[in-house]
From TrEMBL:
UniProt xrefs under InterPro entries: FSCA_dom_sf, MIP18-like, Mrp/NBP35_ATP-bd, NUBPL-like, P-loop_NTPase, YlxH/NBP35
Residues in MIP18 family-like domain copies: 8-39
Coiled coil residues, start to end: none
Subunit structure, as described in the record: Homodimer.
Family note: Belongs to the Mrp/NBP35 ATP-binding proteins family.
BP-aspect Gene Ontology terms: iron-sulfur cluster assembly
One Gene Ontology molecular-function label: ATP hydrolysis activity
Pfam name, any one: FeS_assembly_P
Protein's job: Binds and transfers iron-sulfur (Fe-S) clusters to target apoproteins. Can hydrolyze ATP.
Residues binding ATP: G138, K139, G140, G141, V142, G143, K144, S145
Protein name (Swiss-Prot/TrEMBL): Iron-sulfur cluster carrier protein
Amino acid sequence: MTDSRHIEAAIYERLSKVIDPELGRSVTDLGMIAAIDATPAAARNGNDGTAAGARDAYDVTVHVELTVPGCPLSETITNQINGAVASYPDADLTPHIEVGSMSRDKLDDLVAGLKAERKQNPFNKPGVKTRIFAIASGKGGVGKSSVTANLAATFAALGYDTAAIDADIYGFSLPRLFGVHTQPTNLNGMLMPVTAWGVKLISIGMFAGADRAILWRGPRLQRSLEQFLSDVWWGEPDVLLLDLAPGTGDMAISVAQALPNAELVVVTTPQPSASDVAVRSGLVALQVPMKVRGVVENMSFYEHKGEKLEIFGHGGGERVSEQLTEALGYDVPLMAQLPLEPELRETGEAGRPAVLDADGALRADGVGAEFRALAERLMAA
């Protein structure tokens, strides 16, 4: 025999394993479980008991308080709570989930606690294990954002907790490449990143008015990055990618100041006009505390009927690698030579990184295999 209080305590313990997908904490730690009521089903039905040998039957009502009304992941959370209740082994339980939202005071206390725990930029605290890759290019048009999007999707598909910041304030494109059309949830001044294809994302392009021309100068650009780092709840991702604006302007310097543990990945195309400028984006490491991790040559060739056509010339990635290695005094390898794939553009414009199939799994061949090798090489050091 079981009793109501035993069931309520056991259910609460099971709910401590249910994780809020945005905050990465259990719903019990976050105070989202306001009450649990277990009532014998016989009392409701007016019966004296259950058949001999049958397990006791109970109605279990879980009172859930979401952090914000209309939380976009409320269905996910309630489904997980239903599953946790239904898995109780010692009685037949019929779960009922009553969903409300936290009071303003309770939410204020929760957000204040989370902010105090994080203490601003979470990626600068001692012992942080997040690998940070800043994806840079000397000029636009080399496919830097496409490389960032597909690399982020690859990391996520490989099982890494992955985040990406669209730090190209003037030419943001990650929302389109990931098919994002929603805004981040505002949790009393703390933003929840939008998750798409397994990647946690933030971009100025997710906010109202982002379709207008942005005329920000240095100080405001730096502040935008600081807000993306400190005012967004990232949790503790394994990998953070930043899609930088082309060139060596204010944002690259801001990244180096805010994230001195970031590793620069320089993207170029084969032709000299691109590779010569790409070298300059890597040489920023001579002036700021940032290591250049390696070079990625994009649009290296186009494969047609088994022949590799070098449409944009040859050797750009090697030139950048060699010149940066000599200038910086350490090895800056050419880490990947990615083919020119129309699918990268076509699929990306449709809102799905081309490395993933329609179900979100990493493709085993083609660009999927190329980006998997790049991701594994980046994480090897």
